[in-house]
Amino acid sequence: MTLTGNLLIGATEYSPTRGTLLALDPSTDTTIEPAFALGGIEEVDRAARLADEAFDSYNATTLAVRAAFLERIADGLDAAAPELAQRASLETGLPAAQLEGEAARAATQFRQFAQVVRQGRFRQATIDPAQPERQPRARMDHRMQKIALGPIAVFGASNFPISYSVAGGDTASALAAGCPVVVKAHNAHPGASEIQARVIREAVAASGLHEGVFSMIRGEGTQVGEALVDHPLISGVAFTGSEGGGMALYRRAQSRPDPIPVFAEMTSVNPTFVLPDALAARGHVIGDGFAERMLVNVGQACLKPAILLAVDGPGFDALKAAMIARVDAMHARTMLTPGIFQAYRQNVERVRATGAAQIAEGASGEGRWDGRPALFEVSGAHMLEEPSLSEEVFGPSALLVRVADVEQLVALARQFRGQLSATLHADAADHPLAARLLPILERRTGRVVINAFAHPQEVSYASIHGGPFPATTDSRFTSVGMSAIERFLRPVCYQGFPDALLPEALRHDNPLGIWRLTDGEPARTQA
Ligand code: NAP
Q1: Which residue, 13, 303, 392, 468, is most buried by CB atoms nearer than 10 A?
Q2: Residues ≥6 apart with Cβ < 8 Å to 322
Q3: What distance in Å separates the CA atoms of residue 133 and residue 247, rounded to the nearest whole number?
Q4: Catalytic pick among 243, 302, 377, 392
Q5: % the chain with pLDDT above 70
């Protein structure tokens, strides 16, 4: 695929109006051709207008047409996977083999959403038939279905340049819901972004859809990103990235004359609690597994287990020794961008400045932006006095907390802010303590894992990648998994309608053959 570096707005390519940028290969600290166009508010306006023009016809596509469109994107991603992985690897320093897996996962996700569309359950069709004889007042026929929210702005993150980027879960779920998408491409991987955008726009054309169903713009976040969120024709925002960026866009969206929802995934330290019997039985294995997961993606992962808490006692020293051994054995590796490398260094210094003891350090690397693994230890009392230690350090660093007793462990669990996940390692004798911790963790996280690790994330019907603030700006939803589609839907009720005017999902003879709730009972029958 030839990369032109142009802005891809609908079916048209646009040259730069605000200069260009070159991608950086962070492993060699050299720039890579070609130059990528930067746009401004005119391009944002063009993309948002086209998306608005596309909305009515795209939202009205049959389930079969929309599902086939999503499958075309999946096929295109499969075909482009080697090239996409190669380019993404150059732009991120992450291994190409890992990125091929990410491309495959992205393709699978589009196929899974095609299945969701075909099933039609996302419409949540609900029917309360008329009750003309009801006393003291007759009930009119009420029918509800969910429709698409409107054009959605998508902001991807730098650390998963495919699965949280242009062809990631946000785009897949918004398109599945029937929403046109305008992506603000991440400037850290412009080439990988262009490949993904070309795959999607080719699928738009091949499916005979309105060109405005998908556009990709590029520019500075504080210019085009803000303009996109401000645009009156944009109806919602999906964001993955830093807490600062997510909250800036969230506040912006709430200050619009017509505020719109922002689904931002931002930060999580994914605390891991090792309970006494599990610690005594397999401290070494848990410590080794934790350290292995914490180093995945050079620690640049939203599900990185960053804090391990265990009550001092049998197994603690074995756990600690295993963590130290793995971190000491790992050498520094290229981080995503110079900015992320610098922030990592500063955050490691911030942890050290609290008085935390550094107990392991990976070997230094040769690259300029190589992040050195680091492991710190603090006491539970220290952690309670220093809530800043619960903040994310984005990179290959983690914290071991030597907890004095069970009461202190419970107090520490209460100290955490909202998380994407929390993990318990517990044997049968630990179950009473696990049961005590569970309501504390449920209140603070979107997913509780037992005797495993949160990473990798499953993409399925029950999977949740969300949680209370600051993990996300809206704990009612997930950004990964099939229910991610719900962010981009809203309910409409049709009262007293003749059958001929009803949407297909709500007609008497159920022409789509979908599951519907009739008087509160699920059925696939007429109603
Ligand atoms: P980022 O710096 O927040 O950037 C994300 C995107 O938002 C970029 O396109 C960026 O554009 C834009 N943006 C940032 N601030 C903005 C602002 N004030 N106004 C408008 N647009 C803005 O995040 P990142 O570098 O991609 O990722 C690193 C961070 O993401 C880490 O802190 C990590 O914890 C978090 N993360 C979280 C998850 C999760 O699921 N919770 C997943 C992955 C990453 P510009 O670059 O042009 O500014």
Answers
A1: 303
A2: 283, 284, 285, 286, 287, 288, 291
A3: 52
A4: 302
A5: 100
What's residue 455's pLDDT? 84
**According to DSSP H, which parts of 178-224 are helical?**
190-206
Residue 71 structure tokens: 């499958």
If you search the block for the tokens 């109806």, which residue do you land on?
235
CA distance 372 to 431: 37
Predicted pLDDT at 420: 98
Contact 152, 236 (CB under 8 A): yes
In order of 44, 252, 280, 309, 491, the CA distances from 234 in angstroms are 10, 13, 54, 43, 18
Q: Domain 7-129+148-266+474-487, CATH 3.40.605.10 — does that match?
A: yes
Q: Quick: pLDDT tens for 189-215.
A: 999 999 999 999 999 999 999 999 999
pTM above 0.85? yes
Neighbouring C-beta atoms of residue 161, cutoff 10 Å: 30
Same fold, 7-129+148-266+474-487 and 272-450: no
**What's the fold here for domain 272-450?**
Aldehyde Dehydrogenase; Chain A, domain 2 (3.40.309)
Q: From the CB of 159, is ligand 1 less than 6 Å away? A: yes
318 closest CA partner among 346, 286, 283, 343: 283
> Residue 431: what residue type?
H
Q: Is 61 in the pocket of ligand 1 (CB under 6 A)?
A: no
Domain boundaries, the chain: 7-129+148-266+474-487, 272-450, 490-523
Quick: pLDDT tens for 420-446: 999 999 999 999 999 999 999 999 999
